Amino acid sequence: MSAATSMVVRGSWRTQVKWAVADSVVMTWRNLLKYVRLPQLLVFSTVQPVMFVLLFTYVFGGAIRVPGLKYVDYLLPGIFVQAVIFGSAQTGVGLADDLSRGMIDRFRSLPMARSAVLAGRTLSDTCRNVFVVLLMTGVGTLVGFRFHVGFFASLAGMALAVLFGLTFSWISALIGMSVRDPEVAQSAGFIWIFPLIFASSAFVPLQTMPSWLRSFARVNPITYTVDAIRALCVGGPTFNPLWHALAWMCGLLAVFIPLSVARYRRVA
């Protein structure tokens, strides 16, 4: 290949990436505008995690004992993960809604990158998860939660929660495009999440569980992620849960991004 041809190919590749990124930003903005025009979507998506913080802190906090740690400090990292996973379930609902109303077909008729629809949906839900995590931090602070480590470690813990939500958004995207109905997508998106969240270290120490359940909870990706966030925010061993959590996220993304893209090409 000549130098001139190489420059043309490289320029073409860079142009394609540039337009794909620009289209993804437009689709992200389009999805975020829904929260401006329908603010009740944002309100109801944040009420649930706030209720969990208050209920678990004041209802169960007096009964659950965590050695060396206030229960609210133990609880908040689990609430972070629960909030972003519940938020990621809306990715599938949004895509199923666009499919049922024919919006995906309209997008395909436009001169835009096909990857922009999926990227814009997952990125907009990630932006909402950033807001939810910050809100949970504020609510947790009001009920007694405190960071026990440095600023950057705590920020890394919150970023890890958001990244975990992005990972589950791609799982939800595949579910939403598979069922193609918003109501079914909402049910299918939540039914498998609850066992994963509650059979983990999100709300109670693993030592309090029966041995058969503890074996599952130990290898649960939510347990590794919650433990890593907890270590970054309130202290404790960090390396082992952190690399397990990152390995789980990389593995899930490596599986579900290609599956979601392939499914999008078939259904659209």
Characterise the protein shown here.
By secondary structure, the chain is mainly α. Helices cover 81% and strands 0% of the residues. It has 11 helices and no strands. It has helices spanning 3-37, 39-60, 71-100, 103-108, 115-142, 151-179, 182-191, 193-198, 211-219, 221-234, 239-267. The longest helix is centred in the first third of the chain and has 35 residues, at 3-37. It is elongated, with a radius of gyration of 20 Å.
SSE order and pairing:
Blueprint: H1 3-37, H2 39-60, H3 71-100, H4 103-108, H5 115-142, H6 151-179, H7 182-191, H8 193-198, H9 211-219, H10 221-234, H11 239-267
List keywords for this structure.
0% strand; 268 residues; mainly alpha
Order of helices and strands: HHHHHHHHHHH
Major sheet summary line: none
| SS-derived structural category | mainly alpha
Number of helices: 11
Average pLDDT reading: 87
Measured by DSSP, the beta-strand proportion falls in under 5%
Q: State the share of residues found in helices, binned by percent.
A: over 70%
CA radius of gyration is 20 Å
**What is the total tally of β strands?**
0
Shape: elongated
Our measurement of the CA-to-CA distance between the termini, rounded to an integer number of angstroms, reads 36 Å
Put the structure in a nutshell:
The protein is mainly alpha-helical. Helices cover 81% and strands 0% of the residues.
